[in-house]
Design a protein that fits this description.
- This protein is an alpha/beta fold.
- It has one domain: Aspartate Aminotransferase, domain 2 (3-Layer(aba) Sandwich).
- Strands 1-2-3-4 form a four-stranded mixed beta sheet.
- The chain is globular and about 45 Å long.
- The protein is 43% helix and 18% strand.
């Protein structure tokens, strides 16, 4: 995976499982996550973590988000799409949160403006 990501176009968006790497089942170690975070910084890649089973993989909530913690520790920008349906046992509902970790206030403001714009567009399309 590391070697493949070295060849991905700079500024690409890459979707990663925060834990329970489907379909391989291979979990990178904490050190491997840190190396990936550094690579994402070097290549200006954006990770979108799909975090759907926090606590259900290893039965340890903190262990299941070691990927996210590694990106935080390396101060790498990323996004987390966090589904709470599985951990709460409400499979028929779409319950979750979107977290965007930015390196600067300037980037944060741009992301926030875009999210507000997209939310308004979605709201008005639903009417």
């Amino acid at each position: 995976m590391y070697n493949t990501l070295k060849e991905v176009n700079k500024r690409s968006i890459v979707i990663l499982n925060a834990s329970a790497f489907n379909p391989s089942g291979v979990e990178p170690s904490c050190e491997q996550w840190r190396e990936l975070a550094k690579l994402f910084q070097e290549r200006n890649l954006i990770a979108i973590f799909d975090c759907a089973g926090q606590g259900l993989v290893s039965e340890d909530i903190n262990k299941d988000i070691s990927s996210i913690r590694a990106f935080l520790e390396e101060e790498t920008q990323f996004i987390v799409a966090h589904s709470l349906a599985n951990p709460l046992g409400i499979y028929g509902e779409m319950v979750g949160a979107l977290h965007v970790v930015c390196k600067s206030k300037e980037i944060k403001n741009k992301v926030l403006d875009q999210l507000k714009y997209e939310s308004l567009c979605h709201f008005f399309q639903m009417k």
